[in-house]
Amino acid sequence: MHKGFLKTGAVLGALSVLLGAFAAHGLKQHISDYAVDIFETAVKYQFYHAFALLAAGVLFKEFPNKLMQWAGIFFIAGTVLFCASLYALTFVKAAVLPGYDWIGIITPFGGICFIAGWLLLALAISRK
Description:
Elements: H1 3-27, H2 33-62, H3 66-95, H4 107-126
Helix pairs in contact: 1-2, 2-3, 2-4, 3-4
């Protein structure tokens, strides 16, 4: 097992629940529906990839190779780039800060990391 991936996945999962509750109970009354949708997308993808990271951590025991390590690294990088950029974009929309929409340009790089993580996971499993 890859303990680092398991710990990080567990923390990201707990943070997803916390942020989801914050969105449902505290955020919706203060910002636009559009900004809430952005935030909820970030929470959803963070939660999905917390589970992916947990899977990579567990699968590492059976498939201990560099591809599995890179899969986990890309899941973490995707979470940082994709989710964090959407959280920041939500703040920009909520605070009505013109000129900061460029933050959204970061999001697709996180999506590419997520895709790479899934593909690396498949390759790692197939190359025992």
